[in-house]
Amino acid sequence: MSQFSNVSVVKKANIYFNGKVVSRTVLFPDGSKKTLGIMQPGEYEFSTGAAEEMDILAGDLEWRVKGEKEWKKASAGQTFNVPAHSTFLMRMETVVDYCCSYLP
């Protein structure tokens, strides 16, 4: 899906890591939400409440759940899932455009 219809967008941006990661929250009529964002090159650590599905729209990154040893790769057109109540690490050498879906 290349666009979302009949949604609301929260005006205030989510800004992390001194502006190196920025996203906007998109709210759907069914109560679900997603964030659309850009990550600048770097290494980042995030914690989750809900399970998350990360769709990589452009760029390449490596990721792993904290405590795991193996880094996994994700590139444009790929998706990966992060468990609820976990911490995950991401690192990238290029700008990454992403869509994060918060799963029930």
UniProtKB/TrEMBL annotation:
Gene Ontology cellular component list: cytosol
Gene Ontology MF terms: guanosine phosphorylase activity; purine-nucleoside phosphorylase activity; thymidine phosphorylase activity; uridine phosphorylase activity
Entries under Pfam families matching the protein: Ppnp
Catalytic activities: adenosine + phosphate = alpha-D-ribose 1-phosphate + adenine; uridine + phosphate = alpha-D-ribose 1-phosphate + uracil; inosine + phosphate = alpha-D-ribose 1-phosphate + hypoxanthine; thymidine + phosphate = 2-deoxy-alpha-D-ribose 1-phosphate + thymine
Enzyme class: transferase
Enzyme Commission code: 2.4.2.1, 2.4.2.2
Protein's UniProt keywords contain Magnesium: no
Regions annotated as coiled coil: none
Keyword check for Phosphoprotein: no
Classification via InterPro entries: Ppnp (IPR009664), RmlC-like_jellyroll (IPR014710), RmlC_Cupin_sf (IPR011051)
Keywords in alphabetical order: Glycosyltransferase, Transferase
HAMAP family registered for this protein in UniProt: Nucleos_phosphorylase_PpnP
UniProt similarity note: Belongs to the nucleoside phosphorylase PpnP family.
Biological role stated in the UniProt entry: Catalyzes the phosphorolysis of diverse nucleosides, yielding D-ribose 1-phosphate and the respective free bases. Can use uridine, adenosine, guanosine, cytidine, thymidine, inosine and xanthosine as substrates. Also catalyzes the reverse reactions.
Protein name per its UniProtKB record: Pyrimidine/purine nucleoside phosphorylase
